[in-house]
């Protein structure tokens, strides 16, 4: 309308799709050049680990990518790795997996990426096997995830020494959904973050007095060691190559910007740790005993480790016309996976909500003013306006 052209919605949608193909390449072409793309990443970024898994008919199953600079930088991180996945929206669907650490300044530090068919036990086992080759398996390592059975089984199969913890946020959502007790969340989060077991016991006692079933769930079904700090033992519709190129570009930008920030720090600790430790140290007995605050802090929180974590550069592969790829790599056959025929109509782009996830009610009754139903289905006889504010409800 803005340019004076009258076209249907479907024709505009097809034109947009064609433009995206011209810019990003087709999904089928993405599978074909994937081996060459990975070869160039390894060539320009020493130490980078890539893997491609295909089935008996050379159809794509899984891929894995970990940049060498991230692998080497992980030596200066706390051995705490979060793993999760999110669905992709392209023609061949799939799930994007990620393993991420946390740097000295509490920022996400992506370690490895993967694309699989779905979040099932086989896919997670394959991804975690590749991750284990990159980061190892020690008693100091802890893996954090949601409580999906497929992840739990895969971790127990692959990592024999590492500890497995549950994501505290997911546990909180399950409590809200299962026990309908959002008012206990303050005590729950205090228990999650408590450093001392005495403090933890106090918060759990409060939870137990008010909601005994919640306390039993946290202790027996989830396990204190899975979510408590003091008890712990230790762009989705892009073709795959275009998606990985965006990931490479974003990580390269993060590394460069954070390197500049790290080099400009004048204090011995990172900014987030300086602001956290200074006030606490001033109130401690160590301050009165004239003990240096820096002698009490782990090296993982220092400027030195922060600089070393981002000390190298992630390089792009450049234009495909400039790639220097051996013939045995360029001729490797990787075909698109077989996909089920899509349903008719406009493709769904919103994700499925997690169990226990809360969303706003949208249906509003014009008779009683409440949310959750329409006027035609209203049973109110008084036309009361009570409850006329939107509330969070579990999906």
Structure description:
By secondary structure, the chain is an alpha+beta fold. Helix content is 42%, strand content 13%. The chain contains 15 helices and nine strands. The protein has helices at residues 9-24, 27-44, 68-73, 121-135, 149-158, 168-179, 185-193, 197-210, 212-222, 224-227, 240-264, 271-282, 285-288, 303-309, 327-330, and strands spanning 49-54, 60-66, 80-87, 95-102, 108-116, 142-145, 163-166, 358-360, 392-394. The strands form two sheets. It has a seven-stranded mixed beta sheet with strand order 1-2-5-4-3-6-7, with helices on both faces. The protein has a two-stranded antiparallel ribbon with strand order 8-9. A hairpin with a 7-residue loop joins strand 3 and strand 4 (95-102). Helix 4 (121-135) crosses helix 5 and helix 7 (185-193) runs antiparallel to helix 8 (197-210). The chain is globular, with a radius of gyration of 25 Å. The two termini are 38 Å apart.
């Amino acid at each position: 309308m803005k340019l004076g052209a009258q076209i249907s919605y479907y024709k505009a949608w097809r034109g947009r799709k064609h433009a995206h193909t011209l810019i990003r390449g087709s999904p089928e072409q993405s599978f074909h050049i994937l081996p060459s793309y990975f070869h160039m990443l390894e060539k320009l970024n020493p130490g980078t680990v890539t893997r491609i898994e295909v089935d008996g008919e050379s159809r794509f199953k899984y891929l894995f990518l970990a940049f060498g600079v991230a692998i080497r930088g992980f030596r200066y991180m706390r051995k705490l790795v979060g793993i999760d996945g999110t669905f992709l929206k392209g023609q061949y669907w799939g799930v994007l997996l990620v393993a991420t650490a946390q740097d000295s300044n509490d920022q996400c530090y992506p370690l490895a990426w993967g694309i699989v068919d779905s979040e099932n036990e086989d896919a997670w086992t394959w991804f975690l096997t590749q991750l284990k080759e990159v980061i190892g398996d020690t008693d100091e390592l802890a893996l954090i995830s949601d409580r999906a059975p497929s992840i739990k089984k895969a971790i127990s199969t692959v990592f024999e020494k590492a500890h497995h913890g549950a994501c505290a946020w997911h546990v909180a959502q399950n409590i809200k959904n299962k026990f309908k007790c959002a008012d206990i969340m303050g005590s729950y989060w205090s228990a999650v973050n408590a450093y001392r077991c005495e403090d933890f016991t106090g918060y759990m006692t409060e939870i137990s007095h008010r909601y005994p079933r919640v306390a039993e769930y946290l202790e027996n079904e989830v396990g204190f060691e899975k979510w408590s700090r003091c008890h712990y033992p230790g762009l989705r519709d892009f073709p795959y190559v275009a998606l990985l190129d965006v990931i490479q570009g974003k990580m390269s930008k993060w590394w460069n910007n954070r390197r500049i920030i790290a080099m400009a720090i004048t204090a011995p600790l990172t900014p987030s740790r300086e602001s956290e430790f200074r006030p606490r140290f001033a109130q401690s007995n160590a301050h009165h005993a004239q003990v240096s605050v820096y002698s009490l802090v782990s090296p993982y929180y220092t400027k030195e480790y922060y600089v070393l974590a981002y000390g190298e550069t992630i390089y792009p592969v450049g234009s495909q016309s400039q790639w220097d790829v051996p013939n045995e790599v360029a001729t490797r056959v990787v075909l698109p996976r077989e996909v089920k025929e899509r349903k008719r109509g406009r493709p769904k782009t919103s994700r499925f909500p997690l169990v226990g996830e809360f969303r706003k009610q949208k249906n509003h009754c014009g008779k009683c003013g409440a949310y959750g139903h329409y006027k035609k289905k209203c049973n109110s006889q008084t036309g009361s306006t009570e409850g006329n504010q939107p509330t969070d409800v579990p999906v």
